[in-house]
Structure formats: structure tokens, C-alpha cells
Amino acid sequence: MNRVPFANASVPTAQLHREPRDLLRFITCGSVDDGKSTLIGRLLYETKVVPEDQLAEIIRASATGDAGSSTEFAFLLDGLVAEREQGITIDVAFRFFATDRRKFIIADTPGHEQYTRNMVTGASNADVAVILIDARKGVLTQTRRHSYICALLGIRHVALAINKMDLLDFAEAPFRAIAAEYHSFAQSHGIADVTAIPVSALKGDNVAAPSTKMPWYAGPTLLDYLENVEVEDRLRTAPFRMPVQWVNRPHAHFRGFCGTIVSGRVRQGDEIVVQPSGRRSRIARLVTFEGDLAEAVAGQAVTLTLTDEVDVSRGDLVSPLSAPAGVSEQFEATVIWMDDDPLLPGRSYYVRVGTATVTGSVSTIKYKLNINTMEHLAGRTLALNEIGVCTISLDRPVAFDPYAENRDTGGFILIDRITNRTAGAGLLHFGLRRAQNLFHQAVEIDKHAQAALKAQKPCVLWFTGLSGAGKSTIANLVERRLYALRRHCYLLDGDNLRLGLNRDLGFTIADRVENIRRAAEIAKLMVDAGLIVLVSFISPFRAERRMARDLLEDGEFFEIFVDTPLAVAEARDPKGLYRRARRGEIKNFTGIDSPYEPPLAPDIHINTTTTPAEAAAELIIARLVELGIISRDLC
Q1: pTM for this predicted structure
Q2: Exposed/middle/buried for 505, CB within 10 Å: 0-12, 13-18, 19+?
Q3: Do domains 326-435 and 447-634 have the same CATH topology?
Q4: Per CATH, which fold does 326-435 belong to?
Q5: Of 124, 319, 361, 539, which residue is the catalytic one?
Q6: Is the pLDDT at 373 greater than 80, yes or no?
Q7: Largest CA distance in the chain
Q8: Order of strands, sheet of 103-108, starting from the edge strand that comes earlier in the sequence
Q9: Closest by alpha carbon to 125, among 259, 225, 235, 223?
Q10: Active site residue 263
């Protein structure tokens, strides 16, 4: 993963790393209307990076705004039409400027709570936070929220810009009271370095030059602070890490492994280990476009060649043999949820750690965090912008470092497998010990031996559709037909499992996800036993049906959509469930107050309004013959 672990922000990695002593990445954040964009616009203006034609346009736009005779510098950052119309920031705006002492990359992030995910993107890429507070309002809930997220993401230096001092006649007492309150809050959250600065972003007081209107303040201006704040050189001092992005083999005589060094340094001849495989070798060459190097450091994009023929692929991590990263497939982690759809334990997501993309899920939510009170709360799910400490399980091991030690190898994102949206961001704490105690047990009588004994090809026939669609009826008929053909099969019915194995589960979305996860794991075991497994569940969500498919090999899972319009299913209502749901006696009933996501491309599509159950069963049997699941000779 590049230097921005939680988003594809438009900041070149090499530019971030090339001169870490002369470059400062910082974020501006705070509550709505605290003046973040105005402050950054003022900084850009004072450091003379605003082109004259753009400044003239801003002056013209300011004349129609609320700033009176003042130039509305916020327009320099509020590039979206929606932002100008609403007077708010809804995206992360990255800007570059420089002084004689330093180069800067600034991220202006939204203040609204619903855009916390954008703020997370900016904070994950920053070493310093400029947190604004409206001097008239003091420390607010969103101030605490943003400060906590900054601390969580590893920011240890805060410039507390107490803004709009001009609206309080530059009085000292309100400034001192706000600074004292914030210092107390910051210390309890591990932010030891806080510098409070009274400013007026609109008028320019204490932004780039000391204000004559606040003689009682003897500290630095904001620009002085940014030019002189000392941040840890974590990238250079941490152990060498290079996530492999690409295997370069232009011809038979060259095989190199390309990537950006995210921390540390490496030299020709160094002993390395490729993780998670654990294979060892030495660095033969450090190849760049300009030529070979004797040494490479954090921020440089290089191609490594090794002295041995070692199997390396994208997603692997190259580490020094003397200080390897950790390897695990189960973790404790903090998750910041960034999607409108809730995080559901058991639901399968893509998990990207570094350049490795694997499949995984949140096993449990240990607790949710109330940012306002720091209270630990019980919870089954995470909603948009909520933060929780969770256990994560992956389908295979990955190399990692705790986020507190290395942002690049300790940060991860969760990606919705259906929409490819970034659903959440996370910080790895540690690998779980129980993962080190578990090993896959090889068996001699495997799936292929079991299938050969039964003279059949095992598979899962997954029947999905609304309640009353006819899934169980058709599945029973198919099972009877398979039994008559002397095939070894078993029917897993949703109601039957809920009366036994899954009787602890209710009908919330989270419980439905877990219900299908368990059914899919049972079906997989039965396929390993060589059986043809019929699974009859409403299984309303595409994500869980996709998860069930991915547990099996290609050609072992067949999604059968028993397609019945809601009105027809409700008219049938064989169990009286729709009537009870309409009366409000049953909550979260699929089709009434809980959604059903029909298959987009089912393997078999049965329309029950035109195809009777018996004919549907014969169609399925015929399809199984076509696919080679059942021998044509038997039929």
C-alpha cells in the first residue's frame, strides 16, 4: 500500500517521501463553519502561491458573498459547485505550497459528521493536525471526534487554531478558557504536543504575521508553527518494508520485484525474507530508471532482484531477515466504518493490507466507541462513521506490522465485494494467538475419493427466493428425483436449521448474515463428503450468496433463483407469515420491511408463475445432466 493507506488520494507517493525533512503533511479539521477553508486559503495567499488571475476571480466572487469587504479565501479550496452553493466543504482538497524553510501538503477536510470518512482519508496521510475552533462556540462534539480520529491515526502534533477572534474583539479570556479545556481533553487521548494559537483567518491575524491586536499573545503564528514543528522521521527509522506491487519479467534473463519502499532502507547484499511465505534470499540489485543503486530508502520506487529463484508475487512483503514483519490471518483491529450500509459480522469483504488483497470478514465486534464520552458500548453492527474494536478473520495469512509502528503495513481497507466501494478503514493492533495454534488438518480420504466412491460429482444447489416462492417444494422434488436415481444427496432447509443449529439467531440483518454463513460452511463440509447438497434458504443478500459460492471450487455451486413476484408469494402465504408481517407481528420480514436482492445472473432461473413445481424440478435435473453432475445414462 502506498503512503495513503485508506484512499486513492491524488498525492504522489514519491513526492511525499522524497525529502521527508523538508516536507510536512498536515490536515485541517474541525466543526462546520469554523473557517478551515478560509484559513488554508489565507495561507496560500500569504505564501504567494495564488495566481493573479485566480485571485482576481476570488475577489469578484467575494463581492457577492457574506464577507463584506474581506476576500473570501475559502473559494480557493471550495472547488465543487455543491460546496460553493452550501458554503461547506464536502470533499478532501489537497493543496501544495512552500516557504524558504519547508514544503507543505495540506488536506482540507469536511466538518460535517456524515463526512467523517473523508476526514479519515486526510488524517491517514498527515503528521500534524491543525484543528480549528470557533472562539464563540468553544470545544464541540465534532472537535472531540476529529481530535480522537487524529490521535487514533497516529497524529501526535496539534496546532489548535482558535479562530474568529475578531468577532470577540480579540479578547484573551475566551482564548485561555478554550485552550485549557482542549489541553485537558487532548492529554487524555495521548496528544501530548498541543500549541494553541489565536487567529482570525478572515483578517489574517496570527496566520502568517503576528497580530498587533492581540499583544497579550507571545507565541508563534500558525505559519511559524508549521515551519518549525519537529515531527518524528518514522519512515527512515522503521525497519525496511517493501510491499510488492508487480513482478517484472521482460525477458527470460531478468526477474525483478517492483514496489515503493514504505519504511527503512535496504542495501545490496542485505538478507531479506519474503512474507508471508517466509522464503529467504539476498538483494542482488536495486534497479531504478536512472540506474542501479547501492542503497535505497523510504519513498523510493525500486525493482529488487534476488540472488535466489524465490517465488514472489504481488501482495508479498519484503522485509529484512533481522526484523521481519508479523504474519497472521486473524487480528484485533480498530475499524472506522465508512459505508451507508452497516458493517455486518460474518459478511465477506475484500481486505486490502499493503498490496495484498484477500477475502475476510469481521468475526466479532468487541465494542463500539462513543467518541463523546469514550465509553465502550456493546454492538452487533457498525453504522456509518461509527468506530469499533473488532476481530478480523482472513482466508489466508498476510504480513503486517501494528499500525502504531507502521501506518503502511498496519492500515487496511474493507471493500464491498458486490459494489467495490471502500466500506471501511482499519488499524491492525496485533495478530491473535489462537491463529498460531490452528493448522489445517490434511485428510487421506478427501473430497475426490468420497465422490469417486459415490460415482457422482458433488455440488451445492442453492435455492433462493421469497418466502412462499416454492423453494422448499421444488427442492424436495429434486431431492426425490436424485434419490430415485440413486444419487447421494441431502437437503438443508432454512426452517429446519433454525430449529436446531441456528436457533440462537433472530431475524435482524446481522443474524441473517450469520445464518447464511453457517449454512454455507455446512454445505461445504457436505460437498467435501462427496454429496450433492440442496440448500433452501431465502438468503436475501447477494453478498452472502457470493460468499457461499466462493467457499467452493469452480463448478461446485449453482444458484437457483425461484422467481416469484411478491404479490403472488403473498397470495399463497402457506404459513401465514405475510399476514402477520403486515399486522406488524413479525419484524424484518423479507419483501415487507427487509429487502430481497434478486440474483443478477443465476445459474438456473425458475419462473414459478409459468413453470409448475414438477416441471421446474425436471428442468433442474436436465440442467444437472448438461453440467455433468448426473450421468446421462442414469436418466
Answers
A1: 0.78
A2: middle
A3: no
A4: Elongation Factor Tu (Ef-tu); domain 3 (2.40.30)
A5: 539
A6: no
A7: 98
A8: 93-98, 103-108, 23-30, 128-134, 157-163, 193-198
A9: 235
A10: no
